[in-house]
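Q: Please design a sequence for this.
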């Protein structure tokens, strides 16, 4: 038994289809054939079929003649939801009208050789995975089951039930036809080649799982309602080559953001239609062969400018795309990717562009590799969940407000680094990490102890969230000194505030007995081939510490 299909946003689509049907129309009044099975109208000496009387069979064979008139056209059915599994179209038919089989249950169809005219996607909503065309048809052909004109300049119809998530339109296609992809629920991304100049009306209407689209520099026109009702579409890249955008191209009260350039037509359109936009588009942007990454080429390397369907969770940026080494993350590349929780950056990358991760409100942590030398303005602006960022000593430039409105964050930096000065100057919480020797949790391997044989020993642990914490125990009274909150850096010396002295009893209860404003200590490296720590108290007395598992030098 045939089950009727559930349509997406049917009321609006049917209303539009009805208007189109009335506009296209047929020359004569609809009538029923002598056999009482078919409704048709006469036009140009032929019969245009407009419906079937009653419930048609699931495998429907269209007649080649009705009441002595050749059947030359199949118009839009008077009623959709018709339970057709297959149709046989006679050779007499020369044209198939707009939305002719709209949401019928067709799973298979072959367009015969005589059909030389096809209107707005006639198979929209039909659960087909493949559209067949007679090999000797002079006007149309299928490419991997997708319907094109013979010259492959126009993509006419994409099968509604294809299961792939990303489709790459072949190079050389000039036009994406009206309703070509309408109401496809499987696609999350479409790769449009640089040859395309026009995107037709309602081309992607109702593609509810489409998340992002990059429109190439070649496109000049985007049709009416082209991306309307694409509920999950968050970002569309619109180049300054676009000089015409139709009504409600991105819907009404849309939540989409247009990535474009200043002064472009897209900016004026966005303002007039109350659509958000950013100046993030880079001319020459392309999509990689895998259909995931958007990038530009600069100085022989790739700059990542975005991702098709960023998704959620951890984002791993590749070190190479299409044979090009990834050298940079471009401006606003992942702006407002709110579902991202983490990012892995390869060590081929040397710069992070302005606003690259702006308002990635789900981002909690990021490790910046030691290949990075520059972090742009507002790179992590408004990443409100960002708590941990490691910035290596290789970074020599950090832009204005790069970490603004990241209220819970602590920057992990190295002693004497540019990042440490930046954090201090911008009043950003930070903690020191050793230049090398840190394990995955940020704790320096091994305890530290004094060289003097005076019954004291010192343990030093480095945690990104808490700056230095120095514990000094005494054999007799378990005196503990806690150093927290780095105040400033003077050369290789560090001034630490909030010095607290107290007693730790046998039950682990800490009792504060004294607080001091500051303590000064320095790092001394490469003593006997191992790092060492020199503490200098307020009276100028020095004490040198070495890793607990190493002997102190003579």
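A: Design:
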């Amino acid at each position: 038994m045939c089950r009727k299909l559930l349509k997406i946003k049917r009321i609006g689509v049917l209303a539009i289809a009805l208007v189109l049907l009335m506009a296209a129309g047929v020359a004569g009044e609809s009538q029923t054939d002598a056999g009482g099975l078919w409704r048709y109208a006469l036009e140009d000496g032929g019969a245009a079929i407009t419906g079937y009387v009653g419930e048609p069979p699931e495998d429907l064979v269209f007649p080649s003649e009705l009441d002595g008139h050749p059947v030359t056209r199949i118009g839009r059915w008077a009623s959709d939801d018709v339970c057709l599994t297959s149709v046989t179209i006679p050779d007499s038919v020369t044209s198939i009208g707009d939305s002719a089989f709209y949401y019928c249950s067709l799973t298979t169809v072959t367009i015969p050789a005589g059909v030389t005219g096809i209107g707005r996607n006639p198979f929209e909503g039909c659960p087909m995975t493949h559209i067949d065309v007679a090999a000797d048809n002079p006007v149309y052909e299928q490419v991997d089951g997708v319907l094109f004109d013979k010259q492959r300049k126009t993509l006419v119809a994409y099968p509604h039930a294809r299961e792939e998530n990303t489709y790459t339109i072949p190079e050389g296609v000039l036009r994406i036809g009206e309703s070509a992809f309408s109401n496809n629920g499987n696609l999350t991304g479409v790769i449009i080649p640089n040859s395309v100049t026009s995107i037709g009306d309602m081309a992607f209407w109702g593609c509810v799982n489409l998340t992002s689209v990059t429109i190439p520099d070649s496109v000049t026109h985007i049709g009416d309602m082209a991306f309307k009702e694409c509920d999950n579409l968050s970002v569309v890249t619109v180049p300054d080559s676009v000089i015409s955008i139709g009504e409600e191209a991105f819907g009404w009260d849309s939540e989409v953001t247009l990535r474009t350039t200043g002064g472009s037509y897209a900016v004026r359109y966005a303002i007039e239609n109350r659509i958000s936009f950013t100046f993030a588009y880079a001319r020459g942007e392309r999509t990689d062969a895998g259909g995931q990454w958007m990038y530009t080429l600069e100085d022989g390397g790739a700059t990542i400018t975005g991702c098709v369907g960023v998704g959620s969770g951890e984002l791993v940026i590749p070190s190479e795309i299409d044979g090009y080494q990834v050298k940079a993350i471009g401006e606003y590349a992942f702006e407002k990717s709110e579902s991202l929780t983490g990012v892995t950056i390869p060590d081929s990358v040397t710069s992070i562009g302005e606003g690259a991760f702006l308002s990635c409100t789900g981002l909690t942590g990021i490790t910046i590799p030691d290949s990075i030398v520059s972090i742009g303005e507002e790179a992590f602006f408004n990443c409100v969940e960002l708590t941990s960022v490691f910035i290596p000593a290789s970074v020599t430039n950090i832009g204005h407000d790069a970490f603004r409105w990241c209220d819970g964050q602590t920057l992990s930096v190295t002693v004497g680094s540019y990042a440490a000065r930046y954090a201090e100057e911008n009043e950003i919480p930070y903690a020191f990490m050793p230049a090398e020797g840190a394990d995955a949790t940020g704790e320096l391997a091994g305890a530290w102890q004094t060289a003097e044989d005076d019954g004291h020993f010192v343990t030093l642990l480095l945690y990104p969230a808490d700056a230095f914490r120095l514990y000094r125990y005494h054999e007799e009274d378990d005196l503990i000194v806690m150093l927290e909150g780095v105040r400033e850096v003077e050369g290789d010396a560090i001034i630490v505030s909030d010095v607290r002295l107290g007693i730790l009893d046998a039950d682990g209860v800490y009792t504060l007995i004294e607080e001091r404003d500051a303590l000064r200590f320095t790092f001394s490296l490469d003593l006997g081939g191992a790092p060492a720590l020199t503490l200098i108290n307020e009276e100028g007395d020095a004490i040198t510490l070495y890793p607990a598992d190493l002997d102190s030098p003579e």
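Q: Thanks. Anything notable?
A: Confidence is low (pLDDT under 50) at residues 3-27, 434-506, 518-554. The longest helix spans residues 10-24.
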